[in-house]
Every structure is written in structure tokens, then in C-alpha cells.
Write a structure and sequence with these properties.
Chain A is an all-alpha fold. Chain A is built from 19 helices and no strands. In chain A, helix 1 runs antiparallel to helix 6, helix 6 runs antiparallel to helix 12 and helix 13 runs antiparallel to helix 14. Chain B is elongated. In chain B, helix 3 packs antiparallel against helix 4. Chain B has 2 domains: about 190 residues, no CATH class; about 30 residues. The chains are: A mainly alpha (about 475), B alpha+beta (about 220).
């Protein structure tokens, strides 16, 4: 292996036209058609499956209706009576609450307006919009981390990260739109806070657990907090991108310094805001349950999938004959990152799972009980295999992290594995036993993939492929990880 | 990489001493191009790409690490399984006493994997580098442990160019000192003796110089 020092980076450009442009558009259309056919199938099968009770649910949508409310109030009052008679507590009212708090989830399962076919459609949209949005979030985070850590090795990949982060704008719009559109269908706490029982401790359907979370789970969070956070992220991302483009023209350190400051601010803000968003968007689907590891878990998914997508884009560009100056050493390091964060994901998964498994508290195990029983059981183990075991073994060898084919395969395994991970995060709490992977799920994913690919490739063509005036560009071009 | 350091005894070497890793790297490449077989290079720090230039293949230490890790992982499993299931089953948290409590084995397996790999690597690395307590040092020049790099060529090997040509080439490549030792390399000296020998030489002239210079400046 001969070695020569690169003294100057010659610029490359990516052209987004012709077939490259057509394929993402076709994917969007194809995905939309598949999803449309899939949702019709789901609708028809849904009615056929549940010939009796579910039809009324489907027709009445998600509005509360009187008979059900009556039925539940009966159930609750009987609960309260049993508890009081068992414990001889004079404060019957408070005890009624407590009995509900204890059996919160169980009692509430009945209070769901059973999932309709629209629930499955909305859950799909939420899942895919969140999944693809995470790629963009991870890309912004990675840019910021590289600035703050003063890291030079990944500078040659910076435009890929920027292109990947360009999906943040459209992804956020879609995500926020879908959350607001689906909030009554997917989040049972929204239904609860709309009901008459909310805020009234004497009411029959009063839910102490949900009330205690009302500081976070409310309309202000949905309508203002989520948009606020995403707007801040988009603004910082735009600032970083503008700096990066401006740097190409004017040499010097001013843009680098400015970007470093913005990155530091972003990471500080990101740590809090991402946690809050992951609670609000995903964890609140199972609103009675909570886990302190949950936001870290989401971050792990975000980062490992983001890195895998970065790798796929890099290899795609390499196949197209671009990014020739990105050496095997840089690819190797990106592969190491993928490997490391697969292990990180597994570590976080185990940290969450082990404590819940050990302590065996019903209010915590209910989350895994839903995922380890029924149709979700095989997926649970496939998820573990595809997100940890397979990439761990595949990416362990040094040569694997330097081989484009192996890297693409590993990245695909990780991406599909985390798609299933997302599925397991969202589906059991929303669609439940009616969930399945069919034309609807695949179509929605294809559609979102087309949109993501279009945005990213479009953004790639808008700027030079290398940030030639970045102070660390030569360090990255000559990067060497040693023997 | 053949373990050559054992062979340093009773051998004759042509050595070039460099004070710059880039010059050393370039010299190695030039000599290789001329068809000179290089015995080895001795550097106080790892020089990037030198192993490629010398034509060494990658170390197999990583395979050793993997095997150590596997051994640790299996040991952890065996340990936890034997203790929790076979030998002394205990009911903890109402959990069953069979393989279904695999989750609780994972921390043990994980820790033992790390432990076995770490210890295995340390032992293997020391053994491979012959850094065993009490072993005789293989040094061509004491300076190779400080700030200089030594390029060694075995005199017994048939080279494509003559020995004098190699010497001139080494000088041209920027070697600060070349040494065509006709005698066998003397490793009978202890390190202290060799150090004393090395320190003796420059001492006398520097003392004389400073003593003559001082009054001049005044």
C-alpha cells in the first residue's frame, strides 16, 4: 500500500438529475400507491375480522360514547367499593383513586376506544415519520459533536451529514403534522384529558397516574413545545449549513469558530429537548408506563441509524464515482462508530430491560409483557438479533469495516432492525393485536424513503462535496488509523 | 513478522541512525526499491506506514483477543449457570432456576469477557514483544529507546547492491550516522555498561570546549 500525502483537495460535485432524480420520485409514488392499497386492505379485513363490536367502533370513530362511559363508570365504582371494603379506610374517595393508580394500566386498557383501521394508518405514519426524522437529527448531532470535540477525521464526510440533516425541515413538518393529526387516535392520554373525568378526583374515570403527568402531557406540549424544539433545531442546523457554505468562499477560521459555538449550544439544548420529545412523542403512547432509560434508548436508535444512513450515502456516492478522496481509513472509522453504537444500543436496551425484568413490578413489566406475548414475540427477538448480534459479529473484523459490500449489508441489517425496533416501540401501545406488517407498512416506508432520498440527494447537489476551506480538511484527507 | 530479535546475537549489521521518522520512511522505501533486504527498523515510537513499507502483514493479536473474549464469555456463562442452576439453585425475586434466567447471566458474561480479553492481551502482548522480566535487551543503539530511529540491514544477506552503495544511500537519505559494524554485535554488555560506554565518549570533548569557551565570552 503506497502512501502519499494529499496536499490539496480537488473539488467534486454531485449532479442530481435524470435517473437519480426519477427513482426517488417513483419511490414516493409507488410507496403512496402501496400504502393506499394497503390501507384499503386493512380497512376491509378489519371489518371482516371483527364482525360484531368493532364495526360500531369503526363507525363512531374516536368520539366517546355514552354506553361505554356508563359501562366504565360501573366498573370503576365496583373497583372502589371492593377496595374500601377490603381495607376499611374511611377516606373512600382517595382510595378509589389509589386503586386506580395501581391498576391504572389494566383499567385503562378497557377505556381505549378500540383501535380502528385508521389507528393503524396513523401509527404507521407516526412510526415512519419519526424513524426518518431521527436520521436527520442524528446528522445534526454528529456535525455538532465533531465541532465541539475538535475532531478532524470526519470533515470529508461533512457535506454528507449536512445533506442528511436537510431532511430535518420537511421531516419536522411531517412529524408535527402527523402528531397533531393523530393525537386523538394514538395517545390515550389525550382522550383522557378530553373526558369529563379529567381533573376531578371524584369522577369515576379519574386516573391518578395520568393526572400526575399532566404537566408534560397536555396540549401546550403538543402544540407549542414540539414545534418550538424542532424550530430551534432547524434554525441551528441552518446556521451550521450557512457557515459551512460560506466557509467555501472565504478562507479563515471565523466560520469554524462560529460553528463551534453554535454546536456547543446545540448539544446543550439537544440533551434536554431530545429527551423531552422522545417522552412526548413515543413514550406517551404507553402513558402509564415510564422508563428513565427511554430517551437514551431513542438517542441510541437515532445515532446508530444515522451513522448507518451516512455509511449508505457514502457508499452510494462511491459507487457513483464520487467521494474518491474519502480514504478507507475514514470509512473504517465510520464503520467503527457503527459497530460501537450497535453495542451502545444493546447496552442501553439491556440496562432498561434488566432492571424491569429483575424488579418485576407490574406497572413496569406491562410494557415488555405486551411485546413478549402474541404476534410481537418473534419480532422482539428478530429485533435483538438484527440490531445487535448480527452487526456485532459482522462488523467485528477489521476487514469488514473496510469492505464496501459488507458495510452496506451491515448498514441495511441495522436499518431494518431498527425499523422493527420502531415498530415495537409504537405498535403494541396503539394498534395492539391488530398490528401487522403488510402492504400498508411497507408502502409507507417506501414513500418516506423516497422523500428522504430526494431531499438528501437534492441537498448534496446544492454544494460542493468537500468543505475544502475547513481547517481540518487535509487532516481528514490524510487520516490514518495506523496498522 | 518472524521473531528476529533473538537473532541479534552473533550477527553483523549495517545500521543507519535517523533522527526523523519521515526520512527513515523514505530511506526504507528507497532501499526496498533498490532491492535491499532490510532486517528491521527500531523506533522509539510507532511510525505510521513503516510497517507497510517494510512489507509486514498485520498482527494476528486481534484473533487472540477474540478467542480470549470467547473464552471469557463461555466461562461467565458456565460460572453463572453452574452456580445458579446446577450447584446451588436459589430463588431470587421469584425467578425460576433454569436457563430462562439467562438475562441475569449477561452482566457476569460481559464482565468476564472484558476481564479475559484484557488479561489475555496483556500477557500475549508481553510474550509477543519478548518483554519478559529478566530478559536481555536487544538493542543496536541505545538511542533507539530515546529519540533516534535505527535501520538495520543484515550483512550476511545477499543484497542487490554493494555494502558501500548502501552506506552512501543511507547517508544520502539523511542518516545522521551510519555504521558498518564488521564485528559481531556485542550484546554481552549489560545495559548499564553500554550506557556508561556511550556517555563516556562525548564527555571529554564537551568539557574541554566549555572550559575554553567560557573565558572567551567574558
Amino acid at each position: 500500500m503506497g502512501h502519499h500525502t494529499i496536499k490539496e483537495v480537488s473539488q467534486e460535485k454531485f449532479e442530481f438529475q435524470g435517473r437519480t432524480k426519477l427513482i426517488p420520485i417513483l419511490l414516493i409514488v409507488l410507496g403512496a400507491v402501496m400504502a393506499g392499497i394497503g390501507s384499503m386492505q386493512v380497512k376491509n379485513n378489519w371489518n371482516a375480522e371483527d364482525a360484531h363490536a368493532e364495526i360500531t367502533h369503526a363507525e363512531e370513530g374516536h368520539h366517546a360514547h355514552a354506553t361505554e362511559a356508563n359501562h366504565h363508570s360501573d366498573e370503576h365504582s365496583s373497583d372502589a367499593i371492593t377496595t374500601v371494603s377490603l381495607t376499611d379506610n374511611p377516606h373512600a374517595e382517595t382510595h378509589a383513586e389509589e386503586s386506580h393508580a395501581e391498576e391504572g394500566h389494566h383499567a385503562h386498557a378497557g377505556e381505549h376506544h378500540g383501535p380502528t383501521w385508521m389507528t393503524r394508518v396513523w401509527a404507521n405514519l407516526l412510526m415512519n415519520s419519526y424513524y426518518f426524522w431521527l436520521f436527520a437529527v442524528a446528522a445534526v448531532f454528529f456535525i455538532a459533536v465533531n465541532y465541539v470535540a475538535n475532531a478532524g477525521w470526519a470533515v470529508m464526510l461533512k457535506r454528507i451529514m449536512e445533506a442528511q440533516s436537510s431532511y430535518l425541515l420537511i421531516g419536522s413538518i411531517l412529524l408535527v403534522g402527523i402528531i397533531l393529526g393523530s393525537k386523538d387516535t394514538l395517545y390515550h392520554w389525550v382522550q383522557y384529558f378530553h373526558s369529563s373525568a379529567a381533573g376531578d378526583p371524584n369522577a369515576a374515570g379519574y386516573d391518578k397516574i395520568l393526572e400526575s403527568k399532566s404537566w408534560l402531557l397536555n396540549n401546550t406540549s403538543l402544540f407549542f413545545f414540539i414545534p418550538f424544539v424542532t424550530i430551534v433545531w432547524i434554525m441551528i442546523r441552518m446556521k451550521l449549513r450557512r457557515n459551512s457554505i460560506a466557509e467555501d468562499a472565504d478562507k479563515g477560521l471565523s466560520m469554524f469558530k462560529s460553528s463551534t459555538k453554535w454546536s456547543a449550544g446545540f448539544i446543550f439544548f439537544f440533551a434536554f429537548s431530545f429527551s423531552a420529545l422522545s417522552w412526548l412523542i413515543i413514550m406517551s403512547i404507553d402513558a402509564h408506563w415510564y422508563s428513565t432509560m427511554f430517551s437514551v434508548y431513542n438517542f441510541a436508535i437515532s445515532f446508530v441509524t444515522g451513522l448507518s444512513v451516512m455509511m449508505v450515502i457514502l457508499q452510494y456516492l462511491k459507487i457513483k464515482g464520487k467521494m474518491t478522496l474519502v480514504s478507507d481509513e475514514v470509512t473504517h472509522d465510520l464503520g467503527k462508530f457503527m459497530f460501537a453504537f450497535c453495542v451502545f444500543w444493546a447496552y442501553i436496551f439491556l440496562s432498561q430491560w434488566l432492571l424491569i425484568w429483575y424488579s418485576n413490578l407490574p406497572e413496569e413489566t406491562v410494557y415488555f409483557a405486551a411485546r413478549l406475548n402474541g404476534d410481537f414475540r418473534p419480532l422482539f427477538f428478530i429485533n435483538l438479533f438484527m440490531c445487535f448480534v448480527a452487526p456485532f459479529l459482522v462488523l467485528m473484523m477489521r476487514n469488514a469495516k473496510r469492505s464496501p459490500v459488507v458495510l452496506i449489508i451491515a448498514a441495511s441489517i441495522i436499518l431494518i432492525g431498527h425499523w422493527i425496533d420502531m415498530y415495537l416501540l409504537i405498535m403494541p401501545g396503539t394498534v395492539g393485536e391488530h398490528a401487522g406488517i403488510g402492504l400498508l407498512e411497507i408502502g409507507t416506508t417506501v414513500c418516506f424513503f423516497g422523500l428522504f432520498a430526494y431531499t438528501v440527494l437534492h441537498s448534496l447537489s446544492k454544494a460542493n462535496l468537500y468543505p475544502i476551506s475547513h481547517p481540518y480538511v487535509l487532516e481528514s484527507a490524510n487520516h490514518d488509523v495506523g496498522p | 513478522m518472524v521473531d528476529k530479535s533473538i537473532l541479534l546475537d552473533n550477527k553483523k549489521f549495517t545500521i543507519g541512525i535517523f533522527d526523523d521518522s519521515d526520512k527513515l520512511l523514505h530511506a526504507v522505501k528507497t532501499l526496498k526499491e533498490k532491492g535491499v533486504k532490510i532486517f528491521d527498523c527500531y523506533t522509539p515510537f510507532p511510525v505510521h506506514h513503516l510497517d507497510h513499507a517494510l512489507g509486514y502483514h498485520r498482527t494476528n493479536l486481534t484473533i487472540g483477543a477474540f478467542l480470549c473474549g470467547m473464552l471469557g464469555c463461555l466461562s461467565g456463562f458456565t460460572l453463572a449457570y453452574y452456580m445458579n442452576v446446577v450447584d446451588w439453585p436459589m430463588i431470587i425475586g421469584g425467578k425460576p432456576q433454569d436457563i430462562s434466567v439467562f438475562t441475569s447471566f449477561i452482566p457476569v458474561m460481559f464482565e468476564l469477557t472484558i476481564l479475559f480479553t484484557a488479561f489475555g492481551m496483556v500477557i500475549m502482548f508481553f510474550a509477543r514483544s519478548r518483554m519478559i522480566h529478566g530478559i536481555k535487551e536487544d538493542l543496536l543503539s541505545r538511542r533507539q529507546t530515546d529519540d533516534h530511529m535505527v535501520l538495520a540491514i543484515d550483512n550476511d544477506e545477499d543484497q542487490a547492491i554493494s555494502n558501500d552503495d548502501i552506506l552512501t544511500l543511507l547517508k544520502k537519505e539523511g542518516a545522521i550516522e551510519v555504521n558498518n559494524s564488521k564485528e559481531a554485535f556485542n550484546t554481552s554488555l549489560t545495559s548499564e555498561e553500554e550506557l556508561a560506554k556511550l556517555l563516556k565518549k562525548p564527555k571529554a570533548p564537551t568539557k574541554a570546549k566549555t572550559s575554553t569557551k567560557k573565558p572567551k565570552k567574558k
